[in-house]
Amino acid sequence: MSTIMVLNGPNLNLLGTREPDMYGHETLSDVEVLCRDTAAALGYEIDFRQSNHEGVLIDYIHEAGRRIKEGEVLGVVFNPAAYTHTSVALHDAIKGADVPVIEVHISNVHTREAFRHHSYISPVALGIVVGMGVQGYALGIQGLVHKLSA
Fold it and tell me: Where's the active site on this chain (predicted)?
């Protein structure tokens, strides 16, 4: 069975307690269960990770690129959180490691502060899911499988 990596950026470990009016009451553990259930229904396993550190996320993307080439991983569903708007390095890692990515955001970043309207990840993503709450992760997994199985 192939694996889908789900990567989560900074502060997502605070889901459920950080701005619940914006992000909801589900925890990152709840999101992991949702991802595992969604992937299992499609015949995939999940490798679920979170880091507050940009370099660690870059290492995960490099690992995903290697594992994709080895046939172990299909692709990545990635919520880069605040790094979306600041990280050329994550953009370069995705592009350089040739990793198919679905970018996910719990909130609709386009209705928020102006600095959140720009993504360094979107230009290298297969697709983007924004504003669908944590269900966006399930949609991202389904979209990744659909795009790469077509």
Answer: 23 (proton acceptor), 105 (proton donor)
